Amino acid sequence: xxxxxxxxxxxxxxxxxxxxxxxxxxxxxxxxxxxxxxxxxxxxxxxxxxxxxxxxxxxxxxxxxxxxxxxxxxxxxxxxxxxxxxxxxxxxxxxxxxxxxxxxxxxxxxxxxxxxxxxxxxxxxxxxxxxxxxxxxxxxxxxxxxxxxxxxxxxxxxxxxxxxxxxxxxxxxxxxxxxxxxxxxxxxxxxxxxxxxxxxxxxxxxxxxxxxxxxxxxxx
Length: 220
Prior knowledge:
Helix content is 36%, strand content 16%. By secondary structure, the protein is an alpha/beta fold.
């Protein structure tokens, strides 16, 4: 059952990589509220990961809560970042430890685009499948040679870790999360609201061990 979502706010992040999934989540909650005549009790906490958060595009954000304020969570959302995060600002020991602890406790983690770097730096992807934005594939492979990088796939799932290569793929991933935490009916409703054109299902798009899915296209 989905009760708590942690949203990381990071310097140089792309707000669009969080805005669409969160709007889809609100649509799912609204739909379930209408169906059940009771709003699901889901808390979303914005977490600060440093002293400064200047998203790309010039918008400002209210400071998030400190990491230590969340010790249990069901889903962690990691936004896409501008360019190579490792070259910009390495992951802090505090955030690395927090991500590993929450994952060990059972949280699912979804990372969008170059936000996947944070999972690599935390050591959560060693020996696991992952993908990232097409522009960063070579750099990612050089930085994390022990990760099984899936260059030809836009979505990967390895256990409770999900990677989306782009912002658009992150929206597809959120549809899957809604189906997982709510139900298929709710997921279909949200997909129709945000993406009315026919699309392939998550199961046909995602790379999981032993499976083959659709190839990559170089989209945002």
